[in-house]
Amino acid sequence: MADVTLRQVKKSYGSLNILHGIDLDIKSGEFIVFVGPSGCGKSTLLRSIAGLEEITSGELKIDGDVVNDVPPSKRGIAMVFQSYALYPHMTVYDNMAFSMKIGKESKAEIDKRVRQAAEILQLTKYLDRLPKAMSGGQRQRVAIGRAIVRNPKVFLFDEPLSNLDAALRVATRIEIAKLKESMPATTMIYVTHDQVEAMTLADRIVVLKEGHIEQVGTPMELYKRPGNLFVAQFIGSPAMNILPATIDKSGSPTIVNHVGGRKATVPIATPASAKGASVSFGVRPEDLMIATGADYLFEGTVDYVEQLGEVQLVYVDIGRADLPLVTKLPGNVEVKRGAKLRLSANAEDLHIFDADGHSFSLHSAEAQAA
Amino acid sequence: MAVTTGKSFVGRFGVHIAVLIFVAIWTVPTLGILVSSLRDKDQIIASGWWNSFASSSQTEAGRLPPASVQVEKDGKFVLEGNIFGDGAARDISAFGVKSAAPTQYPAGTTAELGDGVTLQLNADGGFVMTSPKAFEGARGQRVYYASSAPPKFTSDNYKTVLFSEGIGRSFMNSLTVTIPATVIPILIAAFAAYALAWMRFPGRALLIAVIIGLLVVPLQMSLIPLLKLYNGVGSFFGVPSKTYLGIWLAHTGFGLPFAIYLLRSYIAGLPREIMESARIDGASDFEIFVKIVLPLSFPVLASFAIFQFLWVWNDLLVAMVFLGTEGDQIVLTAKLNALLGSRGGDWEILTTSAFVTIIVPLIVFFSLQRYFVRGLLAGSVKGG
């Protein structure tokens, strides 16, 4: 129903800059997730879109209109807060009807829309309850219902699942995904620090760090082809193994020498000038497997094993005690502490990043595009 | 609960004893005032209120009838009758004829008074006095006796103080002062507290600092300048210097810094997201205040109302300065003070007046005590 466009959006408190010029195009009907560590500015960005924070400079458009100076209620947005932010002294019905009552809508219209929203969220039989008589999951549903009633062009979620316990979090996550499916035209923007939520819900993920956008892409793009070291380590759990390496042979494919003492052939093009350069060599724990043949990537002794049942995390000492290699192996493989282990990985699952942390694959893609 | 405190039985016992002692220290005098106010005037003088449920024993003097009513019987002159006359009968335990020994003879026995004169005084007040010679004189024999009166409770004291001593009028005067002087500061302070907690405007921090600063200004220091200012303004508009409006304004002024401080700290502790949510829902500042903040602040409004009500009700100083001492303006505390001077010995008047004065604070305290406790915690623990 509405595009959201940000052009050079900056936010600062006095001399402290929180957002350093954010450019972002959100298409109508998209589910966008802002993700990043604490203090990266993702909540500030969301609150700026909501109008709860004034942006210092730049331009913010919702549905083609510049809304920099438009009050929150006139922006066509609805927001779901982490703490639900229900009005504690009002019943569920009154909570959901509040915005329409303020807007002086007719009683019949209010009743119709509240009951509709309650139907969608299975809240009909709780309409007369006060929030304090409801569980966390139900409260969050009321908060979502309050947003639905407003019939917004853009839905904003600020870490809506953080206050729920693990089981409820999964259930509510699925409910939000279904809600999005039932409202395909509504744009949704969702802030979280939990990458599982980001991966499962998003059409596109925006990774933020210290007020900058690090990368924007679909969940699989970010997972398969992280644009830089930060994204590589932020997406995926446990984080990607990053090892110092030098380029032994540039071109395509590239051959690197990593600190494990072995050479690796990476099918990514590097410019000729990069030969001998220090790079970061990355491989995800889940992409590593026990080598069967003579061709292997790492050799080391098993330092520690965390058995999770389905999988096990094996920490392998490859000669650098400060850089243990983490691998995720199937739970039924027997791995003993102190045993020697040889690991390999498919060539296409290997990543190399230049000294600034940027991915070479992205460079070459940009180079090709240019 | 007892387990979680982790204290020994002795420790808890000590706590309970201490609580009991405090309760007793507080309750006993109040009870004393209540009981005294309901007792008969004469009994208050005769015995303490703690004896009021037992019969009170008092020594009294009476006089037998004069010689003129004597009859001659069996060669003796006899005086017979009841010492209480037509009055209420009391129990006489002992009697005597000398003021030095007023309880010389037990009731019912016959006392030899010399010269063959005998006197028998029964417990019910009946007496027989005989003499071989005729009684003479217009005044009868003086008799002392110890009698015990049954406990006597009466609401007469209340009738007296409320309707003839002017306490009833003062009670209404006190209410006239107290209710507006409680409501006005709450109204002003609630608005101010919301603005100072949630609205951004230049000078807000300074304003808060000034209000906190005003908390420490002693009332006595500002009393006279305030009165002068008020009189100046009053004479400009041609209003008399001592009016209810004046004392409402004075109490409002003296109450506001604390009211704003208390309410602001509570309102600032309300979750920010609720306000933001309301703002997204389209509510203006005024709507947020009326529909969200006021209902949520009810506990702290109630607790401030209690503080202010009790303080104004018990206030003497401000009332003396800003109100007259005539019947239509004198408040209870001032009236009580005046009664101490004019009726200092009349305990039944004083205790009754005192109890009329404390009855309102008692009702306020007991009906709102849960808010009282919550209000005291308002600054330290997030309410709600």
Automatic annotation (TrEMBL), chain A:
Cell location: Cell inner membrane
Matching PANTHER family: MALTODEXTRIN IMPORT ATP-BINDING PROTEIN MSMX (PTHR43875), MALTOSE_MALTODEXTRIN IMPORT ATP-BINDING PROTEIN MALK (PTHR43875:SF3)
Entries under CDD domains matching the protein: ABC_MalK_N
A Gene Ontology term for the protein's cellular component: ATP-binding cassette (ABC) transporter complex, substrate-binding subunit-containing
Matches recorded under PROSITE patterns: ABC_TRANSPORTER_1, ABC_TRANSPORTER_2
Organism of derivation: Mesorhizobium metallidurans STM 2683
Family designation: Belongs to the ABC transporter superfamily.
Protein's name in the database: Fused maltose transport subunit, ATP-binding component of ABC superfamily regulatory protein
Species classification: Bacteria, Pseudomonadati, Pseudomonadota, Alphaproteobacteria, Hyphomicrobiales
Record's bilayer topology term: Peripheral membrane protein
Record flagged with keyword Iron: no
InterPro entries per record: AAA+_ATPase, ABC_transporter-like_ATP-bd, ABC_transporter-like_CS, ABC_transpr_MalK-like, ABC_transpr_MalK/UgpC-like, Mo/tungstate-bd_C_term_dom, NA-bd_OB-fold, OB_MalK-like
Start and end residues of each ABC transporter domain: 4-235
GO molecular function: ABC-type maltose transporter activity; ATP binding; ATP hydrolysis activity
TrEMBL record, chain B:
Gene: aglG
Name this polypeptide is given: Alpha-glucoside transport system permease protein aglG
Provenance organism: Mesorhizobium metallidurans STM 2683
Residue ranges of the TM segments: 12-35, 177-198, 205-227, 247-267, 288-313, 349-368
Keyword list, A-Z: Cell membrane, Membrane, Transmembrane, Transmembrane helix, Transport
Membrane topology: Multi-pass membrane protein
Subcellular localization: Cell membrane
GO CC term (a single one): plasma membrane
Keyword Signal: no
UniProt-listed InterPro entries: MetI-like, MetI-like_sf
